[in-house]
Amino acid sequence: MFSEFLQFLLTGITLGTTYALVGLGFSIIFNASNVINFAQGEFIMLGGMTTVFLVGAGLPLPLAIVLAVIATGLVGMALEKFAVEPAGNAEVVTLIIITIGASLFLRGLAQVLWGKGFFALQAFSGEEPINILGAIIVPQSLWVIGVSVVIMAVLWYFFSRTMLGRAILATSHNKVAAQLVGINTRFVLLMSFGLSAMLGAIAGIIIAPISLTSYDVGILLGLKGFAAAVLGGLGSGVGAIIGGLILGIAETMTAGYLSSDYKDAVPFIIMLLILFFLPRGLLGGRGTERV
């Protein structure tokens, strides 16, 4: 009984840390621009698919991962530069529609380039199962959890110890005041999209050896990452992490003790309940706007 519970818990933490990374991407862009970037899921797809393509072209896995993360970051910056920035001070709804259009474009482009098939990425350090107190997990799950924890620590340092990180936080609190003290808010927004895209790419790469990847893998993962961000409080980094873990564990517990037919519905049911009873999420401190 305990080993079964531990099995579901470890699987849930693996999923939850992935959702947390995606949720952090949503929160970073929302903080910098008040925009909910519905193209975030496509960054997950681009990270995984680009890595598979580069490895297939003969590049070593570590180099392929680095290039895929950089390439996805550049795509995120291009999205901001050529789609969001020209919209200027358009309504939030308009900006959200722009990101939905960008999502459709990126997904269609991936389908043309790589087709509709599923692709497997090799595990980072073998596939020999590991026994932890009776629970069996694959080594890639430890990579997912470990990389996610390191990324979260790096983000904490970035936002609390670096000038660019503090500039992003200042812009999120008061854009006009940030401009008055000399912060280039356009550059901050550009960097926010690039950083968010790289987070999505990393999530897509580390989960690809477990769940495969395809041109449309970002749809569901992106929505669950959004649910994690909303659950924790849109704009709250810590909230996105907590929300991701709650959703991941709830999803696997539901699949394990009830039925896997319900697992994909659980994150959205929880998100709807939170929006009904706590519109700002568990840790959200900023106001929400009906759109």
From TrEMBL:
This protein's record includes keyword Transmembrane: yes
TM helices/strands, residue ranges: 6-31, 43-72, 92-110, 130-159, 187-213, 225-250, 265-283
Localization annotation: Cell inner membrane
Major site of localization recorded for this protein: membrane
Any one annotated GO CC term: plasma membrane
Entry keyword set: Amino-acid transport, Cell membrane, Membrane, Transmembrane, Transmembrane helix, Transport
A biological-process GO annotation: amino acid transport
Keyword Transferase tagged: no
Signal peptide boundaries: none
InterPro entries the UniProt entry points to: ABC_transp_permease, BCAA_transport_permease
Bilayer disposition of the protein: Multi-pass membrane protein
Gene Ontology terms, MF aspect: transmembrane transporter activity
Family: Belongs to the binding-protein-dependent transport system permease family. LivHM subfamily.
The protein, known as: Amino acid/amide ABC transporter membrane protein 1 (HAAT family)
Organism: Thioalbus denitrificans
